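@channel sequence for tomorrow's demo:
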Amino acid sequence: MKNRTTNLFAVAGLTLVSTLFLASSATSKPAAQPSPAAQERREGFEDMKRAEALLRDARALLAGAPGEYGGHRDKAIHKVDEALGEVHEAIEHH
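structure tokens (generated this afternoon):
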């Protein structure tokens, strides 16, 4: 008798779980997949934000470097500033 009661509870539990699973899957909407173009734009945006962060780090390293290096350090900082401007415009255009 005890074994039969345990089996009945097990079957009832499995039935309940199955019913809840089927009910939830029937009412939930499948996740919309982004289009390939949207996925590419998002990945490109993430790349541009990463590039911007790396350029900011490079600028800080150059600015913190002691010495003038014959004026080349300042020229490099200027070029990094130009690159940051271009990346910023690209991100805004996105």
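heads up for whoever presents: The CA atoms of residues 18 and 75 lie 68 Å apart.
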